[in-house]
Amino acid sequence: MSLSPDVKEAVSREQETIARIKAEVGKVLVGQHQVLEGLLIGLLNGGHILLEGVPGLAKTTAVLSLARATSLSFQRLQFTPDLLPADLLGTQLYNPKDMSFVVKKGPIFANFILADEINRSPAKVQSALLEAMQERQVTIGDETFKLPDPFLVLATQNPIEQEGTYPLPEAQVDRFLAKLLVDYPSREEEAEILERIAVAEHQATPEPVVDGADLLRLRGVCRSVYLDAKVKHYILDIVAATRSPATVGFDHPEWISYGASPRAGIFLVQASRSLAFLEGRAYVVPHDVKRVAPAILRHRVLLSYEAEAAEQTPDDVVAALLERVPVP
Questions:
Q1: How far apart are CA 234 and CA 236, in angstroms?
Q2: Distance, CA of 113 to CA of 143 (rounded, Å)
Q3: How far is residue 197's CA from residue 189's CA, in Å, rounded to a whole number?
Q4: Residue pLDDT, tens place only, 34-84
Q5: Distance CA 99, CA 203 (A)
Q6: CA distances from 239 to 226, 244, 258 (A)
Q7: 286 or 135: which carries more pLDDT confidence?
Q8: Is the pTM here over 0.85, yes or no?
Q9: Which of 59, 71, 81, 137 allows an S-S link to 156, with CB 3.0 to 4.6 Å?
Q10: How many whole angstroms separate alpha carbon 172 and alpha carbon 187?
């Protein structure tokens, strides 16, 4: 595969569509540029996104705004300790007239699923999401139903409250393309938030600017973005470094209990192509890989007790590994 003039033209042409999406989301979301970039990368790949941050940082607002900028179906699910799998997927109901069971589909049958405070639901509900997130299908009774295309799970979780929460299973966490950390706004951004919400009489609402066909077309363009063999090997080197950190001269290999799964490499390719596309380029450069790597790897690199004792975070370890992997 080589860089095609047609791909360059398509990438250039679609920048207007991306600008319209950003403008509509920007009517509501102030700042949080990295979060919006991550959400767009997920949207362009059909990759699920996990957002983590303390309450009040507009995690839900960001997801709602992005969903409203499209004309696709949307469901918000508030995850609670008493939530049941049937509340999410649907169930079979008995029809006494013809003495048969009929399927009542649950709210998961939508294009966008906002799983709000996903870590507040128990293991049964978390497991019910696995098939939907990976296979894009749901089994109710003895019937299997395809989920709509596109299908995207955007989940939020609160990192500071532990009471009444359940750690997400590793198998589920690995199905998220990226984990985005939502931070506090700057003083200037917070002043704008006050102006928009506390002072303004009417709050703006994003208007739909793309539909399902537009989104599938954008994804097709992203898949055609050129990825050189050297960049591909750079991605393989990064993933390998998380599993064998000593080979790249990492000083504390004992800090890593488990490295990234093969999904990490797949998602690094997809996210790097999407970032290049968002930057208006028809080709991936190593810097694209380096920019998306923390979001792709921070929930896949599992640290040991030694790392916790040394007050190291996954981001610290990933950053140290990226410094040691040679850039082509």
A1: 5
A2: 22
A3: 12
A4: 888 888 999 898 888 988 887 777 777 888 888 888 888 888 888 888 888
A5: 51
A6: 20, 9, 11
A7: 286
A8: yes
A9: 59
A10: 36
| Measured distance CA(186)–CA(112) in Å, rounded | 29
Peptide bond into 150 cis (omega under 30): yes
* Tokens (6 digits) for 281: 């380029």
Distance CA 290, CA 231 (A): 11
Query: Tokens in use for 211?
Result: 């539909």
User: 99 or 146, which is more confident?
Assistant: 146
**Exposure letters 181-197 (e unless 16+ CB within 10 A, then b):** bbeebeeeeeeeeeeee
Cβ-contact 238, 55 below 8 angstroms: no
Smallest Cα–Cα separation from 66: which of 199, 202, 180?
Answer: 180
Question: 48: which strand partners?
Answer: 176
Whole-angstrom Cα distance, residue 37 to residue 324? 26
- Residue 88 to residue 131: CA distance in whole angstroms: 12
Query: Is it the case that residue 1 has pLDDT exceeding 60?
Result: no
Kindly state the average pLDDT of the residues 10-35: 86
Number of residues in the chain: 328
Strands 176-181 and 48-52: parallel
Strand segments, DSSP code E, in 86-128 are: 90-95, 100-105, 112-116
Residue 201 makes CB contacts below 8 A (sequence gap 6+) with: none
Dihedral angle computed from the Cα positions of residues 105, 172, 53 and 266, in that order, rounded to the nearest 10 degrees: -110
